User: Which sequence fits this backbone?
């Protein structure tokens, strides 16, 4: 029998996630899976490894919320494998809307019957004194923010043309996936995942024009730091301190994240469930 491998990424702070992993592991193990985790948990049948030591896997299963999914994306992007998010009690925008049974989750993994969609990611590069000092990526958003109590001074260009100077708390560049995260809380628009666009949004800018903008994914967004310091953050996980004169180039990446679900769910239904939108009385099917 061919040995199959899967990673379970588990939120260690959620008792229900650990309980679900303990129930799921024997079902997958009995089907011939070798199981691994990068999470700080100890569960029989699941080998705990460092992310760098994780072997080839066919899927990563996330038992947790959207934050855990963002952490798991770091291991699936490099391997180009599906990322299956399971709702552990709180409706998110990347996990299942309704939590499937453990048996249904196991069956979808064993039969590979889960559905996947490719989600856009961003690529960034930081230049200092003419040299590239850092690169990275983000599934939700790249932000350039103040790194202290005073606002940052930023100059933004799009496609080699000047857009604006902003004194602000920061600037968000978001994917459609990230439009329901930090960008949403800052007043940005909600983009359906299949919309091919980026959101650019100054945070608390001292300017006459500081509205959210929807930008072509083919565009190059260049942010120059004009204040003494700032902080680049990618999905609030990967951070780079910035200094005056640093330039941050943000573009769409050629790679994508394969976000997967046990069953297909429309984004509209996800939006309704997340915000408990009033749809009572709708007579459609």
Assistant:
């Amino acid at each position: 029998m061919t040995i199959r491998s899967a990673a379970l990424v588990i939120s260690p702070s959620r008792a229900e996630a650990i309980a679900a992993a303990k129930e799921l592991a024997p079902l997958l193990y009995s089907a011939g899976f070798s199981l691994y985790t990068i999470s700080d948990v100890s569960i029989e049948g699941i080998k705990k490894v460092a992310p760098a030591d994780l072997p080839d896997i066919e899927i990563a299963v996330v038992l947790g919320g959207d934050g855990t999914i963002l952490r798991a994306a770091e291991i699936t992007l490099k391997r180009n494998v599906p990322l299956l998010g399971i709702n552990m009690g709180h409706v998110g925008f990347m996990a299942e809307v309704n939590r499937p049974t453990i048996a249904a989750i196991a069956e979808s993994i064993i039969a590979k019957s889960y559905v996947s969609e490719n989600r856009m990611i961003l690529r960034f590069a930081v230049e200092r004194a003419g040299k590239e000092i850092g690169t990275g990526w983000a599934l939700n958003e790249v932000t350039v923010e103040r790194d202290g109590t005073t606002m940052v001074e930023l100059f933004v260009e799009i496609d080699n043309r000047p857009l604006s100077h902003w004194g602000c708390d920061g600037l968000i560049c978001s994917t459609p996936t990230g439009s329901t995260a930090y960008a949403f809380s800052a007043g940005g628009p909600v983009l359906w995942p299949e919309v091919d666009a980026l959101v650019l949004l100054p945070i608390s800018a001292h300017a006459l024009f500081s509205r959210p903008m929807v930008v072509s994914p083919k565009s190059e967004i260049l942010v120059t730091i004009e204040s003494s310091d700032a902080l680049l953050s990618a999905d609030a996980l990967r951070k780079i301190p910035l200094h005056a004169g640093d330039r941050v180039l943000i573009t769409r990446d050629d790679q994508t994240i394969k976000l997967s679900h046990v069953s297909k769910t429309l984004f509209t239904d996800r939006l309704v469930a997340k915000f408990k939108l009033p749809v009572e009385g709708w007579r459609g099917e």
Q: What stands out?
A: Helices lie at 15-30, 66-79, 102-111, 182-185, 267-275. The two ends are 44 Å apart (CA to CA). The domain at 121-254 is CATH 2.60.200.30 (Tumour Suppressor Smad4).
